[in-house]
Structure to design on (289 residues):
């Protein structure tokens, strides 16, 4: 795996004529994640992950911070392949599920209960059935005033006008609705691109790699690791106390900083297929579940 990704990082196109095609930067991203996953067992892999960060950190990418709700808007059709996106599955609002007619994003159809009424924020109404949902304990682990909570829907009206909320969990619905890829067009499938690699992930991977390699964040690259974590957190909060005080309290030890990074990943990438891998990588899956 390492050899293949190293080869791709050196030989794939630097840029692609069509968005969503493979590039060296996506190979670098995948190599960085692979080295982070294997770093505990393979000599030099944490350093290689940091090397990939340095190769990606050329000013080409940055966190998307436009508007009053940047995290919410990050995933919308109007902001396809913004400066945070290193790689995404390009989707089309015209796609209809036929594989000959382009990629579609069906996430919300899997995330919505079938009895959701048409109206704000779901003009198309319910989905097929709620295969994806957010457990209440997961939701409650978010801190207050976290802007990322605006992508989670905690109640809805059914087709009979009945409000379904937390009291109905486990009976009427499985969990809260992850609404990162909202219904923007009056179509079953949405044209919202599906992110595979974004700069927020790179920043948090870098923070984790430094913490592991240097046994905390008091060493050579510690300040950069702390700043990487701070940047991701700062986008989510407007209250500076939620940023600086938290970062200071999290930087005291290797264990504290790792916990802070994993928590930030939990909040930042909810619904993006990261949590299981993050927990397994750090031998925490059984403990957390």
């Amino acid at each position: 795996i390492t050899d293949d990704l190293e080869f791709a990082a050196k030989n794939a196109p630097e840029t692609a004529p069509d968005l969503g095609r493979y590039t060296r930067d996506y190979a670098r991203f995948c190599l960085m994640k692979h080295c982070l996953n294997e770093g505990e067992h393979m000599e030099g892999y944490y350093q290689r992950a940091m090397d990939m960060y340095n190769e990606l950190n050329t000013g080409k990418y940055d966190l998307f911070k436009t508007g009053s709700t940047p995290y919410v808007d990050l995933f919308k059709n109007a902001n396809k392949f913004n400066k945070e996106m290193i790689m995404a599955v390009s989707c089309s609002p015209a796609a209809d599920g036929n594989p000959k007619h382009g990629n579609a994003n069906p996430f919300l159809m899997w995330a919505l209960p079938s009895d959701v009424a048409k109206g704000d924020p779901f003009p198309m109404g319910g989905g097929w059935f709620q295969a994806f949902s957010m457990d209440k304990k997961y939701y409650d682990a978010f801190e207050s005033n976290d802007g990322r909570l605006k992508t989670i829907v905690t109640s809805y009206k059914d087709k009979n006008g009945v409000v379904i909320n937390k009291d109905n969990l486990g009976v009427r619905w499985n969990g809260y609705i992850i609404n990162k890829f909202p219904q923007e067009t009056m179509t079953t499938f949405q044209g919202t691109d599906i992110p595979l690699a974004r700069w927020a992930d790179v920043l948090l991977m870098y923070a984790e790699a430094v913490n592991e390699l240097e046994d905390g964040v008091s060493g050579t690259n510690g300040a950069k690791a702390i700043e990487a974590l701070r940047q991701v957190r700062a986008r989510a909060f407007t209250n500076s106390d939620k940023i600086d005080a938290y970062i200071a309290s999290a930087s005291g030890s290797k264990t504290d900083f790792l916990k802070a990074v994993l928590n930030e990943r939990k909040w930042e990438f909810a619904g993006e297929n990261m949590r299981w891998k993050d927990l397994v990588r750090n031998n925490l899956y059984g403990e957390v579940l």
